[in-house]
DUF2147 domain-containing protein
Amino acid sequence: MTPRPGYSPRETCNKCPAPYTNQPILGMEILKGLKHVPGTNNYEKGRVIDPLAGKVYDAKIKLNATGKRLTMRASVGVSALGRSQTWIRLD
């Protein structure tokens, strides 16, 4: 991942809950516990941490058929009240 232009990342996650408190952001495992949904390219029942806000959200992921686009949905409780983000693999 590359940071957006003009953004200077913090070194540590000061707002994060334990066990992430004051851990280095670079190299931090931000996705955990995702379970594959058999017969699909979907993963669900995971958790994602936002090191900027220090919050942990429920996460589910869908990988497109070519494996180039990964769409992650993060929410607190109800998925309809969450937010989606798409990551694109560069070759």
The chain has a mean pLDDT of 89. The two ends are 13 Å apart (CA to CA). The longest strand covers residues 42-50. Strands lie at 31-32, 35-36, 42-50, 55-63, 69-75, 83-88.
